[in-house]
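Recap quiz, item 2
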Amino acid sequence: EAQVTQNPRYLITVTGKKLTVTCSQNMNHEYMSWYRQDPGLGLRQIYYSMNVEVTDKGDVPEGYKVSRKEKRNFPLILESPSPNQTSLYFCASSLSRGLGQPQHFGDGTRLSIL
Amino acid sequence: DQQVKQNSPSLSVQEGRISILNCDYTNSMFDYFLWYKKYPAEGPTFLISISSIKDKNEDGRFTVFLNKSAKHLSLHIVPSQPGDSAVYFCAASRNTGNQFYFGTGTSLTVIP
């Protein structure tokens, strides 16, 4: 089954404790992206990757890191999480960046930073 | 600065009637628009899209209309069904860019 898998689905942690949210897709997609969803703000793009070893900042990259060492994986790293990073996070992928390529989303990761 | 806006946070419609969800954008450089549907505890799923060279795209019960001069697009669902109850996001992108910009979402409730 074609899918984007995120782990964990839920995480409660404390300020400053490094965490990684994993994202994996099995569709051989080139383009991958991370979003956060907050009330009243919709989905905002954090980082995206056009292909292996090619990543770039989205609208809200502060406090986040990403890497793309393999085509299928695109982990989101919070080196020193803070309460304002409490949010619902989605990973997405698409065949390419080209127009007309809809993104496939994972089911989300709800992070609570205390 | 929100470049894609959905000014109606919620909408309720009777089953069988038309649902119209609206989306406005500020960046005239956007040339591709998509609608996604999201159920609770799931990620958004792609619904329908439209290129800026068109003013209408239809897929079954779903039609998207684009008015470039007004920087406005709308999603029509006819007839609405209870299973259409979800949050709908519009999104926009530029042909020369690599980012996607999403609206804040509209929660649609279809009343049986």
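The two ends of chain B are 38 Å apart (CA to CA).
Residues 82 and 110 of chain B are 5 Å apart (CA to CA).
End of item.
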